[in-house]
Design brief:
mainly alpha, 74% helix, 306 residues, two-stranded antiparallel ribbon, single chain
């Protein structure tokens, strides 16, 4: 029974971690390459979920809704970059934080104005509905396995792009020394725009993928943004590999910890106290992990070389 529960929660942790990776990958590139703190990155996750919900309702098919939502999320990210964010690159971090927080407030209210405050539900596509037996007597939803497969596929694609293409070479060089890349004749503003748009599309893709399993509602990106920042702090700013490993660590630690922390404490405390203490400690585990990593490796597990 315990082994079965551990397997299920590990799969849930992988799924949660890969969603975090899709969000944190764009955020760590923007932060690492552009030295720009974008608190509104979580809003792009929310917008991706709303776009998927709207296009799915319009077409009647989640696949078409996802395909239409991705380019729209890309265009939305590019518009934000052109209209607002590029004017903040030369400002200090406090100005960036205040401005992007204002974008969060504006877009949360814009979503409420367009779609209302009531949560939206997106049906799981028929092709991915149901469950599959992953062990004797253990069923697991096919759609959650599809999220894991999609996350791993995007991670592999990002690895190829970052490490084996000219664009990836420029991104890695920009993360290491952006002024030198600009001095060598690279249009750094265009590079910034590409990085920002790509990061927005990844966040939108994450939002679209979770739409069938979570309620699509205003402000849904605010809490996950905090976890995305924890990911890039643990993994190392500007590092895709670090974001991937840190996201999986956080996903598994958070999911498994919430399930097993009360049970482990019952070995030391009475059941009532163990249950209360476990519920209190479980949400803190990822921050304890972050503190431990920062103590031993202040730059993160895999910081970008500078």
């Amino acid at each position: 029974m315990i082994a079965t529960l551990l397997l299920v929660q590990t799969l849930n942790g992988l799924q949660f971690g890969l969603i975090l990776f899709l969000i944190a990958a764009g955020l760590t590139l923007v932060f690492g390459v552009m030295d720009f703190i974008n608190l509104a990155h979580g809003v792009q996750y929310m917008v991706g979920a709303y776009l998927a919900a709207a296009f799915t309702a319009w077409t009647g098919n989640f696949g078409w809704g996802l395909l239409l939502a991705l380019p729209c999320a890309l265009v939305f990210g590019l518009l934000l970059e052109v209209l607002i964010f590029r004017h903040l690159y030369d400002r200090d971090h406090l100005d960036q934080v205040l401005a992007t927080f204002g974008v969060i407030l504006f877009l949360d209210q814009a979503v409420r104005f367009i779609w209302g405050s009531a949560p939206l539900n997106v049906p799981v596509p028929d092709l991915l509905s149901g469950s599959v037996e992953i062990a004797s007597g253990l069923l697991y939803p096919i759609y959650r396995l599809a999220i894991i497969a999609a996350g791993l596929g995007v991670a592999a694609l990002l690895y190829v792009v970052v490490h084996h293409t000219r664009l990836g070479m420029l991104v890695r060089a920009g993360a290491s020394n952006a002024p030198m890349v600009s001095a060598l004749g690279v249009d750094i503003h265009r590079l910034f725009m590409v990085v920002f748009g790509f990061g927005a599309m990844l966040a939108g893709f994450a939002g679209a993928m979770v739409a069938p399993i979570l309620s699509v509602e205003p402000g849904m990106g605010d809490n996950i943004l905090i976890l995305a920042f924890v990911v890039i702090v643990i993994g190392g700013i500007g590092s895709i590999r670090g974001a991937f490993i840190a996201a999986l660590l956080i996903g598994i630690v958070d999911t498994v910890g919430r399930t097993f922390a009360p049970n482990l404490l019952r070995l030391l405390l009475d059941p009532s106290t163990a249950s209360q203490t476990g519920r209190a400690i479980a949400p803190m585990l990822i921050y304890i992990l972050m503190a431990a990593v920062l103590f031993f490796r202040p730059a993160g597990l895999f910081p970008a070389k500078r």
